[in-house]
Amino acid sequence: MNADTPKALTPTCQLLARQEADYRGWWWVAPPRDPWLEGGQGLAISADLAVRQAWQAAGRPAYSPFDSLPGSAEEAPQGEGQREVQGAVLFWPKSHALGEWWLLWLCATLPEGTPLQLVGENQGGIKRVLKVLAALGLGCRKRDSARRCSLFETRLGRVVIDPDAAWSAFEVEPDAERLLLASHPGVFGHGKLDDGTRLLLATLPAVLPVGDGPGDVLDMGCGDGILAAWLARRGAAVTAVDVNAFAVEATRRSLATNGLVGETLESDVYSALGGRTFDAIVSNPPFHQERAIDYGPAARLIEEAPAHLKPGGQLLLVANAFLPYPDLLERAFGGFELLADDRRFRVYRAILST
Q1: Which residues contact 175 (CB under 8 A, 6 or more apart)?
Q2: Tens digit of pLDDT for each residue in 152-209?
Q3: Spatial separation of the C-alpha atoms in residues 335 and 341, rounded to whole Å
């Protein structure tokens, strides 16, 4: 880093910024949004499209774990990332299982002996990495702590567990017909059917009847693909999007496993869709970013929905009852209906006027 590098804002990055370390040629794995990272050295590896787009907008290299990666593939793109990987920093996520996957993935992707630092907030479970590393036969020492965060360091080694073993499958029967869904740590509803999604599925047949043809339907925030698969099975032309690369891959696998067809795209809300419009948009939108409540994506989903609906098209979403979506729906559409309310979740419908 140099004098022109912006100051770190997040606690984990503030801890890293005070290290006497040369991070040139390092990978920042699952990083948060932080100007210190985005204005410094190294490259980002993130499943979050919004993070990658922010890096790329700043002229910085950023990749998905599903990309061909510089330093690990025979053919690497030209530029900063083509040099030998000097080390990696893993930002330990809220999902412990996802953190374990990233660790296994790094062991399988980078050369044995590559330096690895692991950083996270204490209340986020970073201290549990000591047991995880020990179970994998990797030594570890604590390097520093501050800002209620801890930083550990080790070196990558070969482990016998394949990171693909993290993928699992589970069955659901939302309408007495079996669906087999793919699931990955860090994807919403990992390994189970969310109660809010269950309520939405129970409501949809009355407003998206098979006889009329569901038409072109957008599944916004597709997660493990339950809504996309249900819609495709009922004859909809489905487009499923999510900002999370693991979710997009899970939906792709879920559709394929059930012999269904649908388009899957990484998209930060509507960013990948251009001017496309749909007969319906269905969603169980997120309202958390790690542990913090974040209405931003859901607000964009609602506010920009009219531009992505055909005349008479409808937005159908489920949300926790306490969330302030009625005001957003009223402003965007001029009105809405409450289709279901079980006191925990509410299903809303808003129709674009013709």
Answers
A1: 201, 205, 230
A2: 999 999 998 999 999 999 999 988 789 999 999 989 888 889 999 999 999 999 999 8
A3: 17
Task: Find the length of the chain.
Answer: 354
Contact 31, 46 (CB under 8 A): yes
Half-sphere exposure of 23 (CA within 13 A, CB side): 26
- State how far the Cα of 325 lies from the Cα of 345, in Å rounded to an integer: 12
d(CA 318, CA 328): 14
The CA-atom distances, in angstroms, between 318 and each of 217, 283, 284, 302, 348 are: 16, 7, 5, 12, 6
Cβ proximity of 333 and 351 under 8 Å: yes
Residue with tokens 């970013």: 289
- Mean pLDDT: which of 92-96, 137-141, 302-306 is highest? 302-306
pLDDT digits (tens, 9 = 90+) for 70-94: 876 443 444 443 458 999 999 999 8
Cα–Cα distance measured from residue 318 to residue 284, given in angstroms and rounded to the nearest whole number: 5
Token pair, residue 202, equals: 């129970």
- Nearest Cα neighbor of 157 from 113, 118, 116 is 113
Contact 325, 287 (CB under 8 A): no
263: helix, strand or coil = strand
Instruction: Give the E-state strand segments of 137-261 in sequence order.
Output: 141-146, 149-155, 168-172, 179-183, 216-220, 237-242
Q: Where are the beta strands (DSSP E) in 2-148?
A: 26-29, 43-45, 62-63, 87-91, 115-121, 141-146
Give the angle subtended at the CA of 11 by the CAs of 6 and 16, to the nearest 5°.
65
Nearest CA to 302 out of 293, 319, 291, 315 is that of 315
Q: Residue type at 242?
A: D
